[in-house]
What does this fold into?
Amino acid sequence: MSEHPHAPRDLGRWLIALYVAFVVEHAYGAARYGTPVRLVGLLPLGLLLVLALELLARHARTGSRLALSTGAIVVAVAFVGLAGLVEGGFNHALKLAFHVVGMPDDRLRQVFGGLNFAVPDDVVFEGIGTATLGLAAPVAWRLARLLRSARLPDSNAPVRRAGVAVLVAAGALLGAYVTEPLGHAGLITLAVLGAALGFALTAVSKVVGQAGRTSRIVHCNGMRVPLKW
It folds into this structure.
């Protein structure tokens, strides 16, 4: 599959949209609930956005697989995993769903508790927060398409094994959360971020190719001969 020349740029636009929603939600929440601690994560995620955009731009200019692989891990973990699944999915969409079906506020605080916990009583705040989950979907879709278009016939087995190991660890954390979901929001966060990292590593293993192996076309007696080493 050939890579569309505008694919990295399209992914970058969706990343910016996701980050803007993340900033608006946290700034509004900090003012609405008097919790300035919500603003702490804006700068780190902003720096990761700049890094991801630069890596995607470098890949678009030079075709660098290292830039694409590194950028893919940043996007998968920080934006799809943290901003999308954890913040938008767990902290807002799932909390709102449990609230709608009648879960008591005390129980909500146990399950979703933390410094930034808020009873879902503000439509604007919960709506913007849930929107980050929706915006993470096209980010993940475009990232997957970009990686698929750049994949090599060979895969890097060590990277793939690392991805599978991280996925298993994420599954164990998720199991620990499910068996005793009493305020262990950190477990679900680690599980989701671990899963995002695992999927990213597994996908990237198809981009970077086998370690120590590369290919070159040479001409021998008028014939094109592929060499690998």
